[in-house]
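Appendix B, Record 12. Input sequence as logged:
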Amino acid sequence: MSEAINFFDDGEAYERAIGRWSRVAGDIILDWLSLPGGLKWLDAGCGTGAFTRLVLERCAPEHISAIDPSTEQIEYAEAGQLGGPVNFHQGDAMALRFGADAFDAAIMALVIQYISDRPKAMSEFRRVVRPGGTVAAYVWEGPDAGHPHQPIFDARNSLGIHRHGPGGEIRSIAALTDLFEASGLKDVDSRVIGIQLNFDDFDDFWSSQTALAAGKDSDPDTERVKALVRERLVTGEDGPISYMARANAVRGQVPG
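Logged structural output:
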């Protein structure tokens, strides 16, 4: 995967900033996939194990292999002590260490934008997922339309500070669909997921969202960004904050 994934080596910070929202998105994705129990799953780019946990709790899998290039993320996920038929280990989506037809379903949950050679990864997924099996991915929309950190991105743009993450070219429904179809998957389908984000007040919003998105306290732009975001989000008394984030999802089947 791209070196940018190293930005998420802090599992606790990632969980604080994205985890709760990714679980809501994951629930919707699993409803959409509507796969039966007893399957062998590959969770590629498992991060903190949030999606892995959802699959374990909801899908009665025979087995889940959850991989991530970050040893720190794997350690954080293993500390969650999921138990059951789950195996976490370090791995690369572009060079999967599994035999052919090893899985019934493979998913990239909020990670495809960090894979540097996506066609290669898709070829690997086709290889390790059996004919008729499902390959799926979902990703937050880009920093100009519906990302969970959208208020921070908007403030940075207004101040001329452009620090968006990688993978903007793959976040749209069209790009995801093109990638899956070009890989030779059949019955490719896609959808948009809307998620309402809710925070108790501005401090709740800022402390969680800036765990990853707004940089460290030593960032000289932090206070300027914070002031502008507060101005835009807080009207009157500092009460609850709510806005909509969106994720784009795609799925396809490995041909027989």
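The radius of gyration is 18 Å.
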